[in-house]
Recover the amino acids of this structure.
């Protein structure tokens, strides 16, 4: 998709392959993600969606392939060859990662403000007042009341925890966010609210998002592009509407036909 | 320290300074590495000592490894030369080495301490040995040691500031009053261990060598002379020293660390210097009292 006028992809994944023992979890997965683009990865559980996300985020090592990122600070980088210091730097400044379970992405026993401020403090921010002011702005952006800033995330509802996790990621103005099933585990009305928020944030901030989901409705609402995975392989990819309205691969057809149509 | 091999003891049945020479050599190697990388925790094979963990096994092993016949030893506990722990550790080294001991800070070449740095300024050639319970300043924030080691390796210390942020958020100020985290030589985050934060500035560009031994946790680290030691803080909530409204009730000093002493069961209490040696000297010099 060249319509947005960027010639270089923000993220370029080439032939990513991962084995867990004898089981191949990823089989030469390749794709490109352009700035401001939202790509949904769908597929049944066990198809390798989360493994793909974790490999890209260097949470787990992959066996073959490459992950290239167009960094503002460091230029074009190969994430696998980057020193751990720079990896952490990129993941803290230009990337975000939203876990399925907010507890994995938050420090549960420190206040919401400290959760948001942690990224800033690890980047060397040392002004308490400014860190706090930034945290309040971030909370407002994800529609959490500023007077909850000193409360522990433990005392937040599931939806609020998820929004706090997003705020924590947004505070450094990343350009790429990886999301692993951000809406599952929330009730339908909270899901809808969170999707609204995500849609607004991606549009307003020009965020590129890689979102793993098993929910085709989420993909339809948020994603420009879509990738269908089965057994560690990408079996179909293209524009979201195209795939959902006219799936070509038999498995994609099965997947689309399995959701209730109205 | 004397270079000669100290093979005989003044007390029969033990090697000089209790530890065998191989153990001392192993600890000295760890000490050299610790001095070479200020603030970095070096693992060492901590030995079983004739007292329980938590009573100063780390400090005693460090002292035993570096003490020589011509050293003069001072031992303090909570700033005092005559509390149980100080008296017994001093006796232990008297028995096993026969070296001179002293209560005077400036006469000592080796000072083993828990909780305090003496008020009297340290000088070149002096060595402070600390008994450290928890050498890892990040331990309460990140229990996985694999992770805290990685944080040290990458100088990734944001988490420590999260703790300070929380303090300010809930209490309006940084509430740590002892074991206040410091950055040594602009690189390694270290716990000055149980010394009050009142003593933190004394570590900065100190003329003496500071050695830290944690027996149970099996770690040694060091702050060499003339090293920058910065206490953490925020620009708008900087590191602050404790202050007392009172002067010492015994010597009248206004610039020392004071302990509150309960004098009776009717609420009577006094504030007195925790550094007994310094206090006695001030009293002798007639610092204030007769005024």
């Amino acid at each position: 998709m060249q319509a947005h006028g960027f010639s270089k992809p923000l993220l370029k994944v080439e032939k990513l392959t991962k084995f867990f023992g004898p089981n191949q979890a990823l089989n030469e997965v390749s794709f490109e993600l352009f700035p401001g683009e939202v790509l949904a990865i769908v597929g049944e559980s066990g198809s390798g969606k989360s493994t793909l996300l974790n490999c890209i985020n260097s949470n787990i090592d992959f066996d073959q392939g490459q992950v290239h990122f167009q960094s503002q600070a460091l230029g074009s980088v190969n994430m696998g060859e980057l020193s751990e210091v720079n990896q952490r730097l990129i993941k803290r400044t230009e990337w975000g990662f939203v876990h399925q379970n907010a507890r994995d992405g938050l420090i549960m026993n420190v206040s919401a403000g400290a959760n948001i401020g942690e990224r800033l403090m690890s980047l060397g921010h040392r002004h308490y007042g400014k860190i706090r002011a930034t945290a309040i702005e971030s909370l407002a952006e994800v529609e959490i009341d500023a007077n909850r800033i000193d409360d522990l995330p433990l005392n937040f509802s599931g939806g609020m925890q998820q929004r706090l996790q997003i705020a924590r990621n947004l505070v450094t103005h990343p350009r790429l966010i990886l999301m692993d099933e951000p809406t599952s585990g929330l009730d339908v009305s909270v899901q809808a609210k969170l999707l609204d928020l995500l849609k607004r944030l991606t549009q307003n901030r020009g965020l590129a998002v890689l979102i793993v989901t098993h929910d085709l409705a989420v993909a339809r609402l948020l994603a420009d592009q879509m990738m269908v995975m089965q057994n560690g392989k990408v079996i179909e990819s293209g524009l979201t509407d195209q795939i959902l309205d006219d799936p070509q691969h038999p498995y994609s057809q099965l997947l689309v036909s399995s959701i209730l149509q109205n | 320290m004397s270079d000669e091999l100290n093979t005989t003891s003044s007390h029969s049945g033990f090697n000089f300074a209790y530890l065998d020479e191989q153990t001392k050599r192993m600890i000295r190697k760890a000490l050299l590495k610790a001095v070479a990388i200020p603030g970095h925790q070096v693992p060492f094979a901590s030995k079983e000592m004739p007292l329980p963990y938590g009573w100063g096994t780390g400090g005693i092993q460090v002292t035993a490894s570096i003490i020589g016949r011509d050293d003069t030893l001072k031992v303090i506990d909570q700033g005092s030369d005559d509390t149980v722990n100080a008296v017994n550790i001093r006796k232990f080294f008297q028995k096993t080495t026969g070296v001179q001991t002293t209560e005077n800070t400036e006469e000592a070449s080796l000072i083993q301490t828990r909780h305090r740095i003496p008020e009297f300024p340290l000088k070149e050639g002096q060595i402070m040995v600390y008994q450290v319970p928890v050498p890892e300043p990040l331990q309460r924030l990140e229990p996985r040691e694999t992770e805290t080691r990685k944080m040290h390796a990458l100088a990734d210390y944001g988490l420590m500031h999260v703790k300070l942020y929380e303090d300010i958020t809930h209490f309006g100020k940084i509430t740590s009053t002892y074991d206040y985290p410091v950055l040594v030589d602009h690189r390694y985050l270290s716990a000055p261990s149980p010394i009050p934060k009142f003593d933190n500035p004394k570590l900065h560009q100190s003329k003496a060598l500071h050695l830290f031994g944690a027996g149970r946790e099996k770690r040694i680290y060091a702050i060499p002379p003339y090293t920058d030691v910065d206490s953490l803080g925020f620009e708008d909530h900087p590191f602050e020293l404790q202050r007392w409204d009172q002067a010492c009730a015994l010597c009248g000093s206004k610039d020392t660390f004071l302990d509150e002493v309960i004098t009776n069961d009717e609420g009577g209490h006094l504030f007195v210097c925790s550094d007994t040696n310094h206090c006695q000297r001030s009293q002798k010099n007639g610092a204030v009292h007769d005024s």
Q: What stands out?
A: Residues 1-5 of chain B have pLDDT under 50 and may be disordered.
